[in-house]
């Protein structure tokens, strides 16, 4: 966590000319966020060449592992109905949730 802004992306500094406190954007954190976005974009350009089967396998492993680690429900309770009904929208929503996207 950033020591300047404590993860808020801004910090308060006194403005002695106007006797107020000003919020200043934390350029350190903003530059890290921009760099992370750039890395994501470059990785996306590489991954786009992977096979759909491999990508589906990676996503499904992440979803099942995320549910197993974080949910009180068992994997069986959570997924059997979704698999039986082929509910792709809910499965993708779970993937998004557990991927932190």
Q: What's this model, at a glance?
A:
This protein has 101 residues and is mostly helical. It contains four helices and two strands, in the order ββαααα.
Could you explain how this protein is built, in words?
The protein is mainly α. The chain folds into 2 domains: 1-49, no CATH class; 50-101, no CATH class. Helices cover 62% and strands 12% of the residues. It has helices spanning 27-47, 52-70, 75-85, 88-99, and strands spanning 10-15, 20-25. The protein has a two-stranded antiparallel sheet. The mean pLDDT is 88.
Mean pLDDT: 88
Beta-strand percent range: 5-15%
Q: Specify Rg, calculated over alpha carbons.
A: 21 Å
Give the structural class. mainly alpha
Helical element count? 4
Principal-axis shape = elongated
Distance between the termini: 20 Å
State the domain count.
2
Count of individual beta strands: 2
Biggest sheet statistics: 2 strands, antiparallel
Instruction: Indicate the percent of residues in helices.
Output: 55-70%
Which regions contain 5 or more consecutive residues with pLDDT less than 50? none
In spatial order, strands of the major sheet run 1-2
Order of helices and strands: EEHHHH
Features:
single chain, 101 residues, mainly alpha, 12% strand
Which helices and strands occur, and which strands form pairs?
Blueprint: E1 10-15, E2 20-25, H1 27-47, H2 52-70, H3 75-85, H4 88-99
Antiparallel strand pairs: 1-2
């Amino acid at each position: 966590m950033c020591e300047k802004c404590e993860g808020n992306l801004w910090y308060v500094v006194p403005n002695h000319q106007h006797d107020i406190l000003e919020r200043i954007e934390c350029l350190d954190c903003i530059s890290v966020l921009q760099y992370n976005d750039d890395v994501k974009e470059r990785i996306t350009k590489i991954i786009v060449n992977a096979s759909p089967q491999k990508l589906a396998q990676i996503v499904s492993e992440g979803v099942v592992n995320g549910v197993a680690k974080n949910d009180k429900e068992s994997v069986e309770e959570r997924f059997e109905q979704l698999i039986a009904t082929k509910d792709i929208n809910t499965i993708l929503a779970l993937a998004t949730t557990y991927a932190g996207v």
